[in-house]
Design a protein that fits this description.
By secondary structure, this protein is α/β, with parallel strands linked by helices. The protein has ten helices and ten strands. It is globular and about 55 Å long. This is Aldo/keto reductase.
Length: about 270
């Protein structure tokens, strides 16, 4: 019997966020981002994740307008980059992103990295944007437990999301446990390990469930209670990644995938970046 995972997780402020979204990091004009996003929306995706650093916010906004989807049906995320951080500069960066996207509001605004000496002031700016109604939810990216604790010591609004590198080779169990205990939704970037999916276990489970190794990993994310935003410039892969709601992994299979962990990062370590 398939475990029923609702289309949305509910954040700590009551806002509903899709479990599955499309990441568009490192997708540029040559990848025809707008058409890829429109294809994803037609496929059934409701969540699109971008950032000012990705330099494609205009194309994301164009895709939203041309998709025919109701704005209320979509969940749009962007992020403030490191050089934009600080209280006033973050407010300015948000307005710049909002104008590029041509949206009245954003669903989720994130601090891209924990810039030493700045991220706490940046968080205060996000709290203002949230209180003023320009964004429905606020959160962080690439925050370790100690970064989250620093925010929580003085915050007026608890972070709703922490988007981090998370995959079978980097299970981050302590961070996942901390976020669950503090009602912060963990979200996985680079869930497919930059395409490094050639593991006998993933192939074995894929054959058993009639799914690809990528689908096995994305389902593993969901069953850990982790939102996932796989990136792809391939329309077929975008469709395949969406098709993960009709099967389940057993507890034993989940444990076997967990055991692949070697604390391997494909991106930067938040404590060294």
């Amino acid at each position: 019997m398939t475990i029923q995972i609702n289309n949305f997780t509910t954040l700590n402020n009551g806002v509903q966020m899709p479990w599955l979204g499309l990441g568009v990091g490192n997708l540029n004009k040559n990848d025809d981002v707008a058409n890829l996003i429109k294809h994803a929306i037609r496929t059934g995706y409701h969540s699109i994740d971008t950032a000012s650093f990705y330099n494609n916010e205009e194309q994301v906004g164009m895709a939203i307008r041309e998709s025919g989807a109701s704005r209320r049906e979509l969940f749009i995320t962007t992020k403030v980059w490191n050089t934009e951080q600080g209280y006033n500069s973050t407010l300015q960066a948000f307005e710049k992103s909002r104008k590029k996207l041509k949206l009245d509001y954003l669903d989720l605004y994130l601090v891209h990295w924990a810039v030493t000496g700045k991220y706490q002031e940046t968080w205060k700016a996000l709290e203002k944007l949230y209180k003023d109604g320009f964004v429905r939810a606020i959160g962080v990216c690439n925050f370790q437990i100690h970064h989250l604790q620093k925010i929580m010591e003085n915050c007026e609004v608890l972070p709703m999301v922490n988007q981090v590198e998370f995959h079978p080779l980097l299970t981050q169990k302590d961070l996942l446990f901390f976020c669950k205990n503090n009602h912060i939704q963990l979200e996985a970037w680079s869930p497919l390990m930059e395409g490094n999916l050639n593991f006998p276990l993933l192939k074995e489970l894929g054959e058993k469930h009639k799914k690809s190794p990528a689908q096995i990993v994305l389902r593993w994310d969901l069953q850990h209670g982790v939102v996932t935003i796989p990136r792809s410039s391939n329309p077929y892969r975008i469709e395949e990644n969406y098709n993960i709601f009709d099967f389940q992994l057993t507890i034993e299979e989940m444990d076997r995938i967990d055991a692949l962990n070697i604390n391997k990062r494909f991106g930067d370590n938040p404590d060294d970046f």
